[in-house]
Amino acid sequence: QMQLVQSGGGTVQPGDSLRLSCSTTGLAFINYAIGWFRQAPGKGRQFVAAVDWSGRSPDYTDDVKGRFTISRDNAKKTVYLQMNNLKPEDTAVYYCTATDADGAGTYFPLGSLGQGTQVTVSL
Question: Nearest to residue 37, comparing CAs of 82, 87, 120, 98?
C-alpha cells in the first residue's frame, strides 16, 4: 500500500505563493496518477488537481486553473503543488492521494490519503 507524507503549507497573505510536497513509499509510484484534494471548514472534500504517471497531462478544478501547478518527479516519488496568487477561498486542509477518474471525469481517491496540510490565506 502506498504511504504518503506531505510537507509545506502554512499561513500566507492573499497573492502569496506556497508549495506543497507529497512524498510516497510503498506501491509503484509510477503506476498511479496522483492528485490533491482539499477540505475547507464546514465543506466537503473538493478535487484540486491531478497528474498522470507521465506528468504531461495535469488536470485542475476551474477554481485554481492558471494559479496552481501540479508536477511530479518519478525518480523521487514525489508530487508537488505550486500554488500562486493564493486567495482566502483557498484556505483548507490539503491532502494528496493516488487517484483515478470515473467515466464522468470526476476524480476520487484510491486508498489512503496523506496526513493533511493546512493552508491558510488571510490578511
Answer: 98
For cell 476551474, name the residue. 62
25's grid cell: 513509499
Compute how many other C-beta atoms are within 10 angstroms of the C-beta atom of residue 82. 15
Q: How far apart are CA 106 and CA 46, in angstroms?
A: 10
Cβ neighbors of 34 (< 8 A, separation 6 or more) are: 22, 24, 50, 51, 72, 79, 96, 97, 98, 99
What lies within 8 Å, CB to CB, of 95 at 6+ separation is: 6, 36, 37, 38, 39, 45, 109, 113, 114, 116, 117
Q: What is the DSSP letter of 63?
A: G
Q: Which residue has the cell 506531505?
A: 6
How far apart, in whole angstroms, are the C-alpha atoms of residue 122 and residue 47? 22
pLDDT digits (tens, 9 = 90+) for 73-119: 999 999 999 999 999 999 999 999 999 999 999 999 998 999 999 99
Q: How far is CA 113 from the centre of its chain?
A: 10
